[in-house]
Design brief:
The structure holds 3 protein chains of 3 kinds. By secondary structure, chain A is mainly α. Chain A has 9 helices and no strands. Chain A has helices spanning 6-14, 16-47, 53-68, 71-85, 93-118, 122-130, 135-165, 177-188, 191-222. The chains are: A mainly alpha, B mainly alpha, C alpha/beta.
């Protein structure tokens, strides 16, 4: 019996609730992770363009640490070290995953935001400041809306990577799509159909976003 | 809470076996990463040129490949190379990573090619250059300069992503570290090993991304921007 | 154009699947016709025995960070089989496997044999060939002494760390049913044993459950293996389904080792004798 025998497909497909549950967890982790990553990315991105050396340094340290170590080791550390630092607080595994992808992609998004802000000519900021805007007001009303255009395509790409990277939950028993698939495949030996189904589901989650990113990019290239 | 400078931690930090194992793992990680970048550069440039080209079949096939690869997790690609293609673990890791990375590099290449103004194409064509000649003598030399920084930073990504190869039994840094951690019992010791692994990745990648940024500022010097 | 690209991308997914199907289905069928009768001959032709072993189970199969060599009871068994088939016990190629990877690697022909604390189970007999048992073990529970857990009955609502692709979870659930216990533990699956141990140490899981001999590698002053054990686990040497002459050869080697007393010596060498 080959690994792609018809009976294996039947068995795998009849266990669809396993995949749906996993998909649900993956979606939760992706949405919450994205919100966290956006918040961190905007905060540190703005900080990295501020005039204060301290905030720039802080932002640099954050970006360097998270961009230069694998997500896998960050998640292992969070998973095993958090209970030691706070033994009373039981943090669910999904939350570890959300923190993991949130902080990791926050670092990338902060670089995207920084590039977006820096794409606006400095004269505009000076002009706004001279008109009596505060730094925050100038950022909010003048710089960020323009920067958004530059920022959106790479941001969407980050969202795609984030969705895929939630599969890191599989290594800490996070109950996501990859974990459920792996667990099912391992127990029943139906890894052939399982991996194809899991791959297809990830593709369906990611492609619309990737497509949107592509469209935004094309639009920019035209203008 | 707990004492970090405990005898357990000192015993671990002074054990040469720890460093031997980590260095051995780092060697394999770098080996995988270097071969991957080499392969991905070749395939990525080809794919990027295909996608950029106006020949419908070529550009559609390249686009479909890139879109497909970019939208599924790397881990799944590696597992497939390992189980389905039946390659040894390190080779499967390299193939999976290369399939993935060449799609990313193809996009970098396309971006680089797009950045060359169409006027240059027209000028070259009017001088009697054909497509291949324009690519080789006019467009690529300029575009490659723009591609270098993102490709160097992609190297960092490959080094990090190679940690997934642990799942298919390649003895790279992450796996060597995990097996090493199996020798120790105390939670603080295990965490120390994880920290050592993270530090090893950090040092290598920090140097590389520093290099990438240096290249970038060198290549895009002279723009008045906010904050710098 | 965009629609075309989407269609092409989907076609790519399907092609990917078809390639997988053709690749594996193909080897599976040819193997059934040729290799089934020439399994041992194929190894002789290759001149090397490819064996999947554990690298994180001290005593059975462990890659010692000090020596960087994979060694253990199961590796010695592999050597004995290589000696029988090829006349040279060094002609083995060891490939690290986990509970998750060992099955697929047999199916795709990367391995001739798996000797990796692989329990013989009826479901598994449908997928792979198994030799007679070379070691009997029980599923056990490793807990922190400070947790106060004294038995399975104390694990209601607690999390048990188990290995991916292992039979532990089923065994525990069966035991709960057999004993009529009214408890509902949660399970977390991990790829490697060191990861489960780390999760136990950090308090992520309350018990580490796997075969007792594997747990032995992780005992220290603060942790204990509960005396309670259940679901006898018979370890067998697995080969591809239908590779009957290879399994027969393996059985012969095992019988020889047992009758000559060599097996007991090996068990003693690795501290596995009971």
């Amino acid at each position: 019996m080959g690994p792609f025998a018809l009976t294996k497909w039947e068995a795998t497909l009849s266990n669809y609730p396993i995949f749906l549950e996993g998909l649900g967890t993956t979606l939760i982790a992706a949405v919450a992770g994205l919100v966290l990553a956006l918040m961190l990315g905007i905060i540190f991105g703005v900080l990295s363009t501020a005039s204060s050396k301290i905030t720039r340094g802080l932002s640099r340290v954050y970006v360097e640490f998270f961009q230069n170590t694998p997500l896998l080791i960050q998640v292992f550390l969070l998973f095993n070290a958090l209970p030691l630092i706070a033994p009373k607080a039981v943090i669910p595994v999904v939350v570890v995953g959300i923190l993991g992808v949130g902080f990791y992609h926050g670092a990338y998004i902060s670089e995207v935001v920084r590039a977006g802000i820096q794409s606006i000519h400095r004269g505009q900021l000076e002009a706004a400041l001279s008109q009596g805007f505060t730094y925050v007001q100038a950022m909010r009303h003048i710089i960020i809306p323009q920067a958004m255009r530059v920022v959106l395509p790479p941001l969407t790409n980050q969202a795609v990577s984030l969705i895929k990277n939630t599969s890191v939950l599989a290594v800490i028993a996070g109950g996501d799509l990859m974990y459920r698939g792996d667990s099912y495949a391992g127990n029943m030996g139906n890894y052939g159909p399982t991996y194809i189904i899991v791959g297809l589901l990830y593709f369906l989650l990611c492609y619309p976003l990737a497509f949107a990113a592509k469209k935004l990019e094309d639009k920019q290239e035209v203008s | 809470m707990f004492n970090w400078i405990s005898p357990d931690i000192i015993a671990l930090l002074t054990d040469p076996v720890v460093y031997q194992a980590l260095l051995r793992g780092l060697g394999v990680t770098l080996e995988i990463a270097v071969i991957t970048i080499g392969l991905s550069f070749v395939f990525g440039v080809l794919l990027g040129i295909f996608r950029f080209s106006k020949v419908p079949v070529f550009s559609q096939i390249a686009t479909a490949y890139i879109e497909f690869i970019r939208n599924i997790p790397l881990l799944l690609l590696m597992l497939t190379c390992y189980f389905v293609a039946g390659l040894p673990s390190a080779a499967a890791a390299i193939l999976g990573l290369s399939m993935y990375t060449s799609a990313i590099i193809a996009e970098v290449v396309r971006g680089g090619l797009n950045s060359i103004p169409t006027g240059q194409w027209e000028a070259a064509r009017s001088q009697g250059f054909n497509y291949v000649q324009i690519m080789r003598h006019v467009v690529l030399p300029q575009a490659v300069v723009k591609m270098i920084p993102p490709i160097v930073s992609q190297f960092v990504t490959v080094i990090k992503d190679s940690s997934f190869a642990m799942a298919i039994g390649a003895f790279e840094l992450m796996y060597e570290g995990t097996i090493l951690a199996g020798q120790y019992w105390k939670a603080t010791q295990i965490i120390t090993i994880y920290v050592l692994i993270a530090l090893t990745y950090f040092v290598i990648n920090f140097l590389l991304s520093h290099l990438s940024r240096k290249l970038q500022t060198k290549l895009s010097a002279g723009r008045g921007t906010i904050g710098q | 154009m965009k629609k075309k690209v989407l269609l092409l991308a989907i076609a790519c997914v399907l092609a990917f699947g078809a390639f997988a199907l053709a690749g594996c289905g193909g080897t599976a069928t040819t193997d059934k016709s040729d290799k089934a009768s020439t399994g041992v001959q194929a190894i002789k032709d290759a001149g090397v025995l490819k064996v999947g072993v554990k690298v994180d189970v001290p005593g059975f199969g462990y890659k010692d960070p000090k020596t960087n060599e994979i060694d253990g009871f199961e590796i010695d068994l592999a050597r004995a089989i290589a000696k029988n088939i090829l006349g040279d016990e060094t002609k083995i190629k060891l490939e690290p496997v986990t509970a998750k990877t060992r099955g697929p690697l047999l199916d795709n022909g990367q391995l001739d044999l798996v000797i990796a604390t692989f329990t013989i189970k009826p479901e598994r007999l449908e997928q792979w060939n198994f030799s007679t048992s070379y070691y009997t073990d029980q599923v056990g529970l490793l807990v922190k002494k400070s947790s106060g857990i004294k038995g399975l009955a104390d694990l209601d609502g607690k999390t048990i760390g188990v290995a991916q692709g292992a039979t532990t979870k089923d065994a525990i659930e069966q035991e709960i049913k057999d004993k009529g216990l009214n408890i509902k533990p949660k399970f977390s699956e991990f790829a490697t044993y060191p990861e489960i141990n780390a999760a136990l140490e950090s308090g992520r899981v309350d018990a580490f459950s796997v075969d007792k001999s594997i747990l032995l590698g992780y005992v220290n002053a603060e942790k204990e293996i509960l005396s309670e054990g259940f679901a006898p686990q018979e370890y067998g040497i697995a080969a591809k389904k239908g590779n009957d002459d290879l399994t027969k050869t393996v059985d012969d080697v095992l019988a020889q080792l047992k009758s000559s007393g060599e097996m007991d010596k090996l068990l003693q060498k690795w501290n596995l004798a009971k």
